[in-house]
Design brief:
Pectate Lyase C-like, 2 domains, 11-stranded parallel beta sheet, Immunoglobulin-like, about 475 residues, 9-stranded parallel beta sheet, mainly beta
Length: about 475
C-alpha cells in the first residue's frame, strides 16, 4: 500500500514539474523598467493628408529576469494623428506583454495630419505611455506639419488637373500623378515656390507655356515629397519636368534634384522659331538618368547652369535637336551604375514607326553650340558624339574646358583646353565653384558673352571671364 502511494505521489510530482516547465512561466518578474532607443521620435515636415515614413522605436528589457509590461498606450487614442504597431499588431492600447531577459521589442510609428488651412508649419505632438511595475514611462512623438496645394492627375482614371495662371507661393505644391499645362495655356511659377512630387509624378507642359521665375537665393525648388533625412540624396523619387511641343518657355533660378530626368524636352512646335526652353541660373543634380534630355527636334538654350552628378548624362541629345549652352557646368561625377560621359549626342534613334515596325529615325542638329563651359567628371572621355549621315549637323565648341582625348574635329579647335583638373572645391557636396589654381579662371571668350553680365551667384563677369557658371 505504501509503495502504491509513493508511486502515485512521485507520478503527480513529475507531472507538476512537466506542467510548470511547459508553461515557461517565471517564478518571479523583474522589478525594473524599460529602456528605449530614443526618448523622442521626430517626424520632419509631413504634408497634410499624406502619410509619413514609418519610424521605428526599440524597447529593451535589460534585466536578467522576465519583465512584464502592464500597459502600452498611445495617449491620444483613436483621435491621435499618430498610429502605432507593437510587435506586428496595430492598435492604441496593449497589455500584459512579457519580455524575456535581455530581450527587445519593436514599435512602429506613422503619422497622417489633417489640413489646417494655414501657411505656416504646425507642430503636432503625442506620447506613448509604458506602465511597468507601477511606473509610467513616456516616449514623446512630434511631427512638423505643413499644409500644401495639391495637384492630382491620373490619365488612366480620366482625372486631369490642368493649370494656368500663377501658382501662389505661400504654401508648398505637391504633385500626385501629374500637373498639366494644356495646349495654349500659360503657367507661371513664382520665386520661392517649393514643389514636391510624389513617386513617378510629373509636371507636364503639353503645347503650352511654362515660366519658372526664381531669383537668386529665392529659387523655385523641385524634389520628392519624402522629406525625412534618409531621402535627401535618393534619386528617382519622381519623373521631372516634361515639355512636349511646347511654346517658348523659360526656367530661371530653379533647383531640380532627385528625380529621374530633370528637364525632358520632346519635339518642337512647328510654329515656334525660338527655343523650346531657355534655362538660366539653374542647378540640376542627382537625377537618376539625365539632367537635360533633348529629343526629336526640341531646342534648348542654357546659360549659367550647373548640371552635375546625374545617373547617366548631364545632357543628352537624341534623334536630333538643337542646343546652345554658354557658361555652363556640364559634369559627370554621378554614382549610378549606368554613369557614362557627361554629354551624349546621337542624331538617330531606333523605335517603332506608326505601324509598329522598328525604324531608325535620323534628325538634324542645326545648332550644336557649347561655349565657355566645363565638361568634366571622373571619366577619361566626358563627351560622346555618335551620328549617322542623312541630316544636317552643325557643331561648334569654343573655349570649353574638357576631359577627353584631344579630338581632331575642326569644331573643337577654337580655344578648347583639355585634361587639367578644374580644381573644384568639393564635388562630393555639389560645390563646383573652384580654387584660385583653377584653369577655368580667365579662360572664357568675352566675345561670346552670356545674356547676363553676372554668374550664377550674381558676381559680375569682368573683361576676362571664367569658364563655366561661376566667376572666381
Amino acid at each position: 500500500m505504501m509503495k502504491t502511494t509513493y508511486i502515485l505521489f512521485y507520478t503527480l510530482f513529475l507531472a507538476a514539474i512537466v506542467s510548470l516547465s511547459s508553461c515557461k512561466k517565471p517564478l518571479s518578474f523583474s522589478n525594473g523598467n524599460l529602456s528605449f532607443s530614443a526618448d523622442t521620435l521626430v517626424f520632419d515636415t509631413v504634408f497634410t493628408t499624406i502619410g509619413s515614413v514609418t519610424k521605428r522605436l526599440k524597447i529593451y528589457n535589460n534585466s536578467k529576469k522576465t519583465l512584464k509590461i502592464d500597459q502600452i498606450e498611445l495617449v491620444g487614442g483613436a483621435n491621435s494623428p499618430f498610429r502605432i504597431n507593437v510587435d506586428g499588431s496595430p492598435g492604441t492600447q496593449f497589455g500584459d506583454i512579457e519580455m524575456d531577459p535581455k530581450d527587445s521589442l519593436f514599435i512602429f510609428v506613422e503619422v497622417t495630419l489633417d489640413p489646417n488651412n494655414q501657411s505656416n508649419p504646425m507642430v503636432i505632438e503625442d506620447q506613448i505611455r509604458f506602465l511597468t511595475n507601477g511606473t509610467n514611462q513616456y516616449v514623446q512623438l512630434a511631427a512638423w506639419g505643413q499644409d500644401a496645394y495639391f495637384h492630382y492627375s491620373y490619365i488612366s482614371e480620366g482625372i486631369l488637373d490642368t493649370n494656368e495662371g500663377t501658382w501662389p507661393n505661400d504654401k508648398p505644391h505637391v504633385i500626385y500623378g501629374g500637373a498639366f499645362i494644356d495646349s495654349a495655356r500659360t503657367l507661371t511659377i513664382q520665386a520661392g515656390t517649393d514643389i514636391y512630387l510624389h513617386k513617378n509624378a510629373i509636371l507636364y507642359n503639353y503645347k503650352g507655356t511654362l515660366n519658372i521665375n526664381g531669383t537668386y537665393n529665392n529659387e523655385v525648388t523641385f524634389q520628392g515629397d519624402r522629406l525625412d533625412a534618409a531621402y535627401n540624396d535618393v534619386s528617382g523619387q519622381y519623373y521631372g519636368i516634361y515639355f512636349q511641343e511646347a511654346r517658348p518657355s523659360t526656367i530661371n533660378y530653379a533647383i531640380i534634384k532627385n528625380g529621374s530626368t530633370g528637364i525632358h524636352v520632346f519635339s518642337e512646335d512647328p510654329s515656334n522659331s525660338d527655343y523650346t526652353v531657355t534655362v538660366t541660373n539653374t542647378k540640376i543634380f542627382n537625377n537618376a538618368s539625365y539632367g537635360i534630355f533633348i529629343y526629336s527636334g526640341a531646342k534648348v538654350k542654357a546659360e549659367n547652369c550647373v548640371i552635375a552628378k546625374n545617373g547617366i548624362h548631364a545632357m543628352i541629345c537624341l534623334e536630333g535637336g538643337d542646343f546652345n549652352f554658354n557658361h555652363c557646368h556640364l559634369l559627370g561625377y554621378g554614382n549610378g551604375e549606368d554613369q557614362t560621359a557627361a554629354i551624349g549626342i546621337r542624331n538617330y534613334f531606333t523605335r517603332p514607326d506608326g505601324n509598329g515596325i522598328p525604324t531608325t529615325f535620323i534628325g538634324s542638329i542645326n545648332e550644336g553650340k557649347i561655349y565657355n563651359s566645363v565638361i568634366y567628371g571622373n571619366y577619361d572621355q566626358e563627351y560622346i558624339i555618335d551620328t549617322l549621315p542623312g541630316a544636317t549637323l552643325n557643331f561648334d565648341f569654343q573655349r570649353n574646358h574638357i576631359r577627353a582625348s584631344v579630338p581632331s574635329d575642326a569644331f573643337f579647335t577654337n580655344g578648347n583646353t583639355f585634361n587639367i583638373d578644374p580644381a573644384f572645391k568639393s564635388p562630393s557636396i555639389y560645390d563646383f565653384s573652384f580654387f584660385s589654381t583653377s584653369p577655368l579662371i580667365g579662360g572664357a571668350d568675352p566675345g561670346i558673352p552670356a545674356s547676363s553680365l553676372s554668374d550664377i551667384e550674381q558676381k559680375p563677369r569682368d573683361g576676362s571671364p571664367d569658364i563655366g557658371a561661376y566667376e572666381f
